[in-house]
Design a protein that fits this description.
The chain has 146 residues and is of the alpha+beta class. 24% of the residues lie in helices and 35% in strands.
Length: 146
């Protein structure tokens, strides 16, 4: 998985992450302690109607699936950022999340020889193929050595 392995409109799907109640509460307790992520009964009275994962937790689960999808030998060099992150639907315990990706664009770096920038659109979907989160990332990848 190097820069040359990507091309515009290339798609893939990966991941199978099961969301657990204990993980939802653990993450929320550390990083996003709002009642609808922590308290089952109070969450039933919330806008979400039940206990749900933090959007930031959904982002962390996405990141785990993304890294797990990389082959051991890969040219990934990190990312300068994300754009347009949207939490579209609540993520509830018991959901099984996966990721759909589509390459938006690829270009060689003008300032860093041997490195390319790949812009990707991602959708995190639940087991019913409903998009729960979407985002766009830019990522640096090494070029293959000639």
């Amino acid at each position: 998985m190097y820069f040359e392995d990507f091309f515009p409109k290339q798609t893939s799907q990966f991941g199978a992450y099961t969301v657990t109640e204990s993980e939802v509460k653990e993450f929320a307790g550390k990083y996003d302690p709002q009642y609808f992520h922590l308290d089952d009964e109070a969450a039933k009275q919330s806008l979400f109607g039940d206990l749900c994962a933090s959007g930031w937790h959904t982002g962390a689960m996405f990141m785990r699936m993304l890294v797990d999808s990389f082959p051991e030998d890969n040219g990934a060099l990190g990312s300068p950022g994300m754009n347009n992150i949207k939490w579209l639907k609540p993520v509830y315990p018991g959901y099984i999340l996966s990721v759909k990706s589509c390459v938006k664009s690829c270009r060689l770096s003008e300032s860093k020889p041997g490195i390319g920038l790949v812009c990707m659109n991602y959708e995190v979907v639940n087991q019913h193929d409903v998009t729960v989160m979407s985002l766009e990332t830019n990522a640096f990848f090494r070029c293959r050595k000639s």
